[in-house]
Specification:
Radius of gyration: 24 Å
Largest sheet: none
Number of domains: 2
Distance between the termini: 59 Å
Low-confidence stretches: none
Number of helices: 3
Order of helices and strands: HHH
Structural class: mainly alpha
Helix content: over 70%
């Protein structure tokens, strides 16, 4: 899958650069169509495949704001403030 995504991304970049070249040197309207088709292909085909590949095997629960995760965040935020208070007392 990783190799396929790299090849597919390379093809999208090549098509984009070809569209820009075609737009400036050959035919403006055809170049615009090539660029538009390339952008749509990247957004409709490449992006979902890439996201599926990156999220494979990960739990969505770890990345959502639930009560449990908010509690962990609050506990982590209290830690550094206590350290700052200790540092100030050491500076005096």
């Amino acid at each position: 899958m990783k190799l396929f995504l790299r090849i597919f991304f390379s093809c999208i970049l090549i098509a984009l650069f070809y569209g820009i070249y075609h737009k400036t040197n050959v035919n403006f309207e055809e170049g615009e169509r090539i660029i538009g088709f390339t952008v749509l292909t990247g957004a409709i085909l490449f992006l979902p495949l890439f996201l599926f590949h990156r999220w494979d095997g990960k739990k969505l629960k770890d990345y959502t704001l639930s009560e449990e995760n908010l509690k962990k965040m609050r506990e982590n935020m209290q830690g550094p403030t206590q350290l700052k208070g200790k540092r100030k007392s050491l500076d005096k």
